[in-house]
Amino acid sequence: MTGLSKPLAQMADDVLRTADGREKTALARRYAAEWVAARDAGRITSPLQDRSAVIGQATPPDFPARPEKPELKNPRDVPRRRPGSRPGQIALLHAVAHIELNAVDLHWDIIARFTDTPMPLGFYDDWVKAADEEAKHFNLVSDCLEALDSHYGALAAHAGMWRAAEDTASDILGRLAVVPMVLEARGLDVTPGMIDIFKKAGLTDTVAALEVIYAEEVGHVAYGSKWFHFLCGRHELDPKDTFHALVRQYFHGALKPPFNEEKRAEAGLPPDFYWPLADETPDRQRGTPG
Ligand SMILES: [Fe+2]
Ligand SMILES: [Fe+2]
After folding, report:
1. Can you say whether residue 218 is alpha, beta or left, with left for phi > 0 and alpha for psi between -120 and 50 degrees?
2. What pLDDT, in 10s, does the model give residues 221-234?
3. How confident is the model at residue 278 (pLDDT cuts 50, 70, 90)?
4. Domain boundaries, the chain
5. For bias kind Basic and acidic residues, which ranges apply (predicted)?
6. Model's pTM, two decimal places?
7. 83-to-68, 150, 217 alpha-carbon distances in Å
8. What separation in Å is there between the alpha carbon of 218 and the centre of ligand 1?
9. Ligand 2 mean position to 1 CA, how many Å?
10. Which ligand is located closest to the Cα atom of residue 100?
11. Residue 10 in contact with residue 1, Cβ under 8 Å?
């Protein structure tokens, strides 16, 4: 007996197919707690003990279920507002909530989509923890929006967020390179500036929420780097060269300095991974950042 109500990949699939934001995050947190309890109780000690019962298999949707609102638009059509104004602060928080909900789905998707690649249990522990934290982040930011008399869904949101997942749906190394090691690392670069905006606005609850997010996102980038290096080792690939090739292949945005070198280093992302890509950005830029 694993102590799980269903295999982990099926839990992941359930979360991906839940549309409402608060319902999605509640289910994500419940399933994460179930996994952690089973692991802590020593009921799951090897992904191979009974692979079909522990990890199982799923056919995750091409696009995760999402609520009817927010309306998804091309980012060029989402009006920009000054961050010094209250509407600007709400718009910024709304964009963060959208990123967090997308991140919940991204972390469950890596669990559900790549079950044909045998991975150590630590891989699942890490992404379950990351998915649980994203669910918490979405709830925290939604609470902040509601405290400002708004809510997730009140404004339009970026339509291209799932692009990175689609592009890397059949390549786990590409997924690790683009999602945690490019997109989530970008979060480390921009979050301190956001924290400053809300400090200036005197919104202390929002500052506290963003500080939780900032601290925990370092871990997500680190999980990406850890499992990227693990898989490169398995296939005898050079991690740096492989990272460069995969980002060039799959990522359609720009790697924009300034980089948060301190936090990137803490997350196991050395400068020679990202700087060479930043230098060549003008030639590669084909679309909008994911
Ligand atoms: Fe997050
Ligand atoms: Fe994250």
Report:
1. alpha
2. 999 999 999 999 99
3. very high
4. 8-284
5. 65-80
6. 0.95
7. 27, 16, 23
8. 10
9. 31
10. 1
11. no
CA of 209 to the centre of ligand 2 (A): 14
Percent of the chain at pLDDT above 70? 95
Residue type, 282: P
Question: How far is the centre of ligand 1, averaged over its atoms, from the C-alpha of 170 (Å)?
Answer: 24
Tokens of 205: 């609850």
3-state secondary structure of 102: helix
- Mean pLDDT along residues 37-47: 87
149: CB partners within 8 A, 6+ apart? none
| pLDDT at residue 80 in the model | 79
Block residue for tokens 């590409």: 174
- C-alpha of residue 129 to centroid of ligand 2, in Å: 10
Closest-lying ligand to the alpha carbon of 141? 1
Residues, beta carbon < 5 Å, ion ligand 2? 103, 184, 217, 220
Q: How far is the CA of 141 from the centre of ligand 1 (A)?
A: 10
Whether residue 255 is predicted with pLDDT greater than 80 in this model: the reply is yes
Report which residue type is found at 130. A
Q: Are 96 and 217 in contact (CB under 8 A)?
A: no
SS3 72: strand
Cα–Cα dist 276/112, whole Å: 32
Alpha carbon of 100 to ligand 2 centroid (Å): 7
